[in-house]
Amino acid sequence: MEKFMLIFHGGSDVAPEMKNPEAMQKHMQKWFGWVEKLKKEGRYEGGEPLEPSGKFVSGPNRIVTDGPFAESKELVGGYFIISAKDIDEAVALTQDYPDFIFNGKVQVRPIQKMDM
Amino acid sequence: MSALPDKNVRQLVDHLFRHETGRMVAVLTRFLGSENLDTAEDLVQDTLLKAMEVWRFRGVPDNPSAWLYKVARNKAIDWVRSGQRQTKLLSTEEEKIKSIWNLSSPSEALFQEGEIQDSVLRMMFACCHPSIPLESQIALTLKTLGGLSATEIANAFLTSEETIAKRIYRAKEKIKQEKIRLDPPGIFELPHRLDSVLHVLYLMFNEGYHSSHSDTIIREDVCAEAMRLTFLLAQHKATGLPKVHALMALIKRKIQTCLS
């Protein structure tokens, strides 16, 4: 089993459909369902939501700037760590990601291993 | 990295967001003043978005309602403190709000169950104020207290979303123009004001009950909402008057005959 990071871009938090409390709750329920499924299959390792923005520290002078100010559809809302046999299986596990209908994107990145 | 504890991935209470929306809007509007009803609604919307963002990764907190109120309260404090607010609060209001928020544990008591219900009742009286046209009263009540979207209300009333949006807009304008506060009605005013509240609740219930579309979920929700608000009125010592119980009995009877 290898580990993968799923990085979620955009999605439900910018969709106009999400103006309705009932719809919001239903949508969140889908996320719970997805997480539950991943856990049942022993794939879910963890995950955290991210605040929309923070700080950048850059260069030899450690310049601190605010950011990122990505367009909301590109914004990283959070990440999961999952385990999968290979990248194909990891991609397959994103099938139930609930935000596709809101044009959300999932970045699937293999986590590098030490023993290479 | 924290794995989601199993117990946290569970189903939320049905309609939790919708029900708490109305209650939170009522509480925040009571603090921010009825002229800031729109802001209260925006802050509540932000609160639900925040819940969505966080809960889907972390799972549902042990006390989801308490979590929502805490976030909503903090958002309201931020809004009052920030100079960016669009509408200037009336200076006296502002002082009042500041003094409330500045307490070491700001408004903790006002977010207790009893006070929340009190705010909901006040909101109900404001939404059903006689100077607001009747159609708008119903729409506004369903929107602010029932947590129904304009689309849902439009479906229930077999009209367009635009029409409902206009009714809600007009109702809010009236609240601003007439400076309808979230004060409880005075003792002499109460019977008259209560009548218009009961009228709205009755129409609301009827709207959900007598309909060719009675099998749709939204219609059922409109009935349930009318019942819930009537029940709230019946429970309160100032408004638990015979005619409120009479309406409650009428609603219950209709539902029973419907079920039997």
Give a description of the structure:
The complex is a heterodimer of chains A (116) and B (260). Helices cover 23% and strands 34% of the residues of chain A. Chain A is an alpha+beta fold. In chain A, the strands form two sheets. In chain A, strands 2-5-1-6 form a four-stranded antiparallel β-sheet. Chain A has a two-stranded antiparallel sheet with strand order 3-4. In chain A, a hairpin with a 4-residue loop joins strand 3 (54-58) and strand 4. The model of chain A has no long low-confidence stretch (mean pLDDT 89). Chain B is mostly helical and 260 residues long. Chain B folds into two domains: 13-111; 115-260, no CATH class. Chain B contains eleven helices and no strands. Chain B has helices at 16-32, 37-58, 64-81, 91-102, 113-127, 134-145, 150-156, 161-177, 190-209, 217-235, 242-259. Chain B is globular and about 45 Å long. The model of chain B is unreliable at 1-9 (pLDDT under 50). At the A-B interface, helix 1, strand 2 and strand 5 of A face helix 1 and helix 2 of B.
